[in-house]
Amino acid sequence: MSNYDVINSNAPRVDTPAKAKGKAIFIDDMSMPDMLFGALLQSPIAHGKILNIDISAAKKLKGVKAVVTAKEAGLIPYGVSPARYDENVFCHDNVRYIGDEIAAVAAVDLETAIAAASLIKVDYQELPALLTIDDAMAEGAPVLHKKYPRNICAQVNQEFGNFEAGLKESDIIKTTTFKSKRQDAAFLEPQGCIANFDKLTENLTLYSSTQVPHYVQRILSMVLKLPIGKVRVIKPYLGAGFGIKAGTNTMEIVSCLLSMKTGKPVKMNYSREQVFMFGRARHQFVHTMTTGVKKDGTLMALKNECYLDGGAYTSFGIATVYYSGSLLGGPYKLPNMKYDGYRIYTNKPACGAQRGHGGVIARACWEQQLDMIAEELGMDPIELRLKNMMVTGDITCNDFNMSSLGMKECIEAVKDGSEWNKKKGKLPKGKGIGMACGFFVSGAGYPIYRSDTYHSTAVIKLTEDGGTALLYTASSEIGQGSDTTMAMIAAETLGIPLSDIRIESGDTDFGVDLGAYSSRQTLMTGHAVYDAAAHVKQQILEVLAEELNISADEIDIKKGIIIFKKSQPDFSKLRERYIKEHRGWTDNPSADDPLTFKEASRIAFLAKGIISANGKYKPHQLGGKFKGAAVGTSPAYGCSAQIVELTVDEQTGQITIDNMIDAHDCGFAINRVSVEGQMEGSLSMGLGEAMFEEVKFDSKGKIINADLAEYKIPTALDMPPVKAIIVESSEPNGPFGAKEVGEGAIMPTIPAILNAVYDAAGVRIFELPLTPERVYQAILDYKNKKAS
Amino acid sequence: MLLPKFNFYEPKTQGEALSIMNEYGLKAKLIAGGTDLLANMKRKLLSPDALVGISEIEEFKNLEISDKTIKIGSCFTVSAIAESAVIEKKISALAVGARALGTPLIRNLATIGGNLGSARPAADIPPSLIAYNAKAVLKSVSGERTVLLDKFFKGPGFTEIQPNEILTEIIIDIPDGYYGAGYINLGIRKAQDCNIVNVASFVSLDEPNGVINSARIVMGCVGPTHLRANAAENILIGNKPSEKLFQEAAKIAESECKPIDDFRASAVYKKAMIRVLTKRTLDIAVKEASLK
Ligand SMILES: Cc1cc2nc3c(=O)[nH]c(=O)nc-3n(C[C@H](O)[C@H](O)[C@H](O)COP(=O)(O)OP(=O)(O)OC[C@H]3O[C@@H](n4cnc5c(N)ncnc54)[C@H](O)[C@@H]3O)c2cc1C
Predict the structure, then answer these.
(1) Pairing of strands A336-345, A299-311
(2) pLDDT at residue number A675
(3) Could you report the per-residue pLDDT of A2-43, keeping only the tens digit for each?
(4) B2:A111 CB<8 A
(5) Residue ranges matching CATH 3.30.365.10 in chain A
(6) Bond into A732 cis (ω within 30)
(7) Which of B103, B186, B189 is facing A712, going by the closest CB pair?
(8) Distance CA A55, CA A683 (A)
């Protein structure tokens, strides 16, 4: 085992007791004196021109305190990336999807607010609803946003190396097209918030179930025209987010607006149906890929063309369309890569970022294609991958630096762990085994808005008795375990037990942290916390050195005890002082006890006042210089390999996943159970997308399965036993060598399942999800083809 | 989604419940577990003036077993059915259906009466009950009547139950001799799923390894109510079970069902699956019958 006292262990999470006892406070549990409830009026049609809005009846309803429309909210555009601020708080000219927000009401209770919203009368002139990419790109189709002809929201054309030249050198060329379906992340907690504006001080506080308090703070400040110092965003406990809560939602702005109008706290919540209507989860992707390889299996060239059904607004989409190209740069050595990506506006809820942002379907398409190529080459799929695998220090054709990469170790771990060699191609009919690999960023290298800002800051402050270290970070615990990770890093760095750290997080008053997205917090916030803790520790060591008249280099702190590396000096005077201050206390040290951190930090307080330090982190200059180089650039990359075993019922098309094994290189596991938890969660989410999940619309653009009965995520019975293997490659750019696990682990899941289905049933399927009917049909087509 | 406003009654006895229903008629709805009703009310598909809670009435929660019959009170829960040793032994296909329904949380609330009362063509409880030839007892202030479950369903959401009536119990006459039944439901995932198709098949044999003397095949999700595969049943009777016979019956059943395309699956797929499930449930039924 490691030399560490706190990190690299299986630590119980710091938030477990509160959650297990039901004491953790979520937005839905919160209320405030005099609180009002807000409700939205959302468009019932997918596309239309607003002719008139009449709010008079709503205003007259008893109990209604405010009604707001675009008139009150103004027209300052906002969104996620300043490159595409294409949203207004309320629609003023057109509505662009069923659910587009038109007005809102604050009232004394939710029933009244909903009733009032329904009294707002809107006259529309309906426009054709563009529900597919083909509709939206058709000649003469109406344009959703004037600035973007043909409804092309964003277009990326990149070439690294020379694709055509690479193809010329190839012996085998394979082209496939792959289609996925729009997702919903199905987090347990629907978005909600409470805004509280104090008319006297003009301070605004928003409590919100967000992954990104900092970005929300900036958007509120910009849209509501408040100085950023007057805006505070606090994130209570969160029931997950998976990327959907990484942008600002309409309620977050509207509740503030209503609170500013009324001077009272205003609470708003999405119903589950509204969660679906708001969308912002994974896009639908259609990829067409052409890969060229040499006879010996050397990858020569890849052309990737992708269309994303974006929905009515951009949200994270501009990053998504870059990621769906750039994330194929690794983990294989690929000299020539061409990418053409198009994100198209349609009259549906906007899509955005979801776990594995932009890369999941590209990965699924390509890893299935690689298996097809391996078969044609007569090569074991693992052998093909190993042959092309990058190693630590390699740089991709699009300038990603693999500063650590335990890809090979991951592959070997799953290969051995699954007894691949005994099983591949040797399982009985109907049973199959498949594998795939993937990698992901460890934090976006650049903030969403152009800035030299620190990506993370942290403050550590010791209590005056020296017994407890208070850690303040604006990072977001959203269920993934980041509070525990940060507390562990602080404890390890300071040299004290985890129980002596008290962490407060998720509040913009604690500093700047870009938040929980792009798998960034362990690396980035972790660095800031390490930095703060190291500075606090140094201050204590320096005071001690001076008091004891030795060099600070000779002193260390471990498990809450002061360690003298050379000879032990006489610290009895210090102890005497400490004890004198604590007369009558029953826990004073006795003469031959070692000197404790507690005593030392009390002495330090007496010398210097409150001992505290700031920590900060931003990545060094990263990546290439080409347009879009920022997307996918990261200080580090996590990677994983997976093997799936499954059974296909050939008569019904039903698939049963029997076993999954995942090896993930997270650089270094701060908390091993949290790493395993992220791996298992990723697999479950990938399994759902592969097998069941699809947001479905009717012909008018209304979602027909906006609930968790008909939108099918995996149940406990659908999840197989999972073996999660942690690989540690020690990342030079990560704190203690740590990098991501939150998203990279989902990358191989879908293609590993696809490849196993082929092994089991002999069919390649190029469209998700793998419903029984789709699999049945594929088997039928295959049999018919074989017969003819 | 908020519930609409309603008055709530919680009668303590059957008599009280019957007189409330007599007074309110169409304006009231009975509520047992509420797992179907409350979801519909939240969606504003229904907004009755009153709800009459019957799940605390002891008479409705009984399970009565004799040599000849099993009587299940309408408020007997689905989880209790799933766990009952007697049901497992005597009418196993019902237990299989109960275990397939929803989730543990839903099963703890959901009742057999509510499952029949909601009359969903995809429900998990009716096919097995119809296959066992079960009857429903309907009571009102003016008396009681017994309806064969096969004739009980009138369309999605509609049954024989009149506005002033309460379904009080389900009666299953335990078949004589060598009988067995199988139930299979097919969906997208392994639990908490609305079925794509479901089938229950019952057979009885004149002796172990003998000829089939009665058969019932009940198909769900392929019509406005559960359908019987009459022609398929007919070719079974008088014959010895065999692979070929069951394949033939399954093929006929496929031609007897009338599914529609919907967002869950195409009619073509549902038809094909009726064939697969018919064959498989017949296999289970005969296996169980031979072991009796
Ligand atoms: C998440 C979820 C999953 C589900 N999964 C399944 C599933 O897999 N399979 C399945 O079959 N169903 C499923 N259901 C539907 C539902 O749970 C079942 O139909 C259940 O058996 C209904 O019983 P209940 O007691 O809750 O009925 P209630 O909701 O209380 O009543 C349903 C209807 O029956 C009427 N009713 C109830 N009792 C009587 C009576 N004694 N006499 C006359 N009328 C009566 C009510 O007035 C109402 O119209 C699911 C529901 C949910 C919410």
Answers:
(1) parallel
(2) 98
(3) 689 999 999 999 999 999 999 999 999 999 999 999 999 999
(4) yes
(5) 16-22+454-617, 284-446+624-787
(6) no
(7) B189
(8) 48
Ligand 1, atom 16, residue with closest C-alpha? B36
pLDDT given for residue A210 in this prediction: 98
Residues of chain B with pLDDT under 50: none
Is some CB atom of chain B closer than 8 A to the CB atom of A709?
A: yes
CA angle A306, A310, A313 (to 5 degrees): 145
Note the pLDDT tens digit of each residue in A751-765: 999 999 999 999 999
Length of chain B: 292
Tell me phi and psi for residue A74, to 5 degrees: 80, 180
Question: Helix H segments across B4-123?
Answer: 14-24, 37-42, 78-83, 85-90, 92-100, 104-109, 112-118
Angle at A385 between CA A159 and CA A519, to 5 degrees: 70
Give the model's pLDDT for residue A466: 77
| Structure-block tokens of residue B5 | 């406003």
Question: In terms of CATH, what superfamily is A31-127+189-239+244-278?
Answer: Aldehyde oxidase/xanthine dehydrogenase, a/b hammerhead (3.90.1170.50)
pTM greater than 0.95 (yes/no) = yes
pLDDT at A130: 98
Is any Cβ of chain B less than 8 angstroms from the Cβ of A719?
no
- Indicate which residue's Cα is closest to atom 50 of ligand 1: B102
Asked if A343 contacts A310 with a C-beta cutoff of 8 angstroms, the reply is yes
Strand A469-473, strand A501-505: pairing: parallel
CA distance B167 to B74: 6
What is d(CA A261, CA B246) in angstroms, rounded to the nearest whole number?
Answer: 72
Ligand 1 center to B120 CA (angstroms): 9
Which of A114, A271, A773 is the closest to B269 by Cβ? A773
d(CA A745, CA A463) in angstroms, rounded, equals: 39
| Rounded Cα distance, A239 and B262, in Å | 33
Pocket test for ligand 1, best of B30, B57, B130, B166 (most atoms within 8 A of CB): B30
Please tell me the distance from the alpha carbon of residue A648 to that of residue A654, in angstroms, as a whole number: 6
* B188 min Cα distance to partner chain A (Å): 6
**A704: contact with B, CB 8 A cutoff:** yes
**Which residues in chain A show pLDDT less than 70?**
1-2
What confidence score (pLDDT) does residue A341 get?
98
- Please state, in angstroms and as integers, the Cα–Cα distance from residue A13 to each residue in A500, A528, A529, B90, following that order: 14, 20, 17, 49
pLDDT digits over A368-391, tens only? 999 999 999 999 999 999 999 999
* Residue nearest ligand 1's atom 45 by CA: B117
How far is C-alpha A332 from the chain's CA centre?
Answer: 24
- CATH 3.90.1170.50-classified regions of chain A: 31-127+189-239+244-278
DSSP 3-state of A724: strand
Matching CATH number, A16-22+454-617, of 3.30.365.10, 3.40.50.150, 3.30.70.100, 3.40.190.10: 3.30.365.10
Q: Show the tokens assigned to B4.
A: 């609409």
Neighbours of A295 (CB within 10 A): 9
| Residues of B contacting chain A (CB within 8 angstroms) | 1-2, 103, 186, 188-194, 196, 263, 265-266, 269, 272-273, 276
Which pLDDT belongs to residue A65?
98
Do A114 and B263 count as a contact with CB atoms less than 8 A apart? Answer: no
Q: What local confidence, expressed as pLDDT, does residue A2 receive?
A: 67
| CA of B191 relative to ligand 1 center, distance in Å | 16
Order across the sheet with A456-462: list the strands. Answer: A501-505, A469-473, A456-462, A612-617
- A709 CB neighbours in chain B (<8 A) are 192, 194
* Interface A-B: count of C-beta contacts within 8 A: 52
Domain with residues A284-446+624-787, CATH architecture: 2-Layer Sandwich (3.30)
Test B263 with A705 for CB contact under 8 angstroms: yes
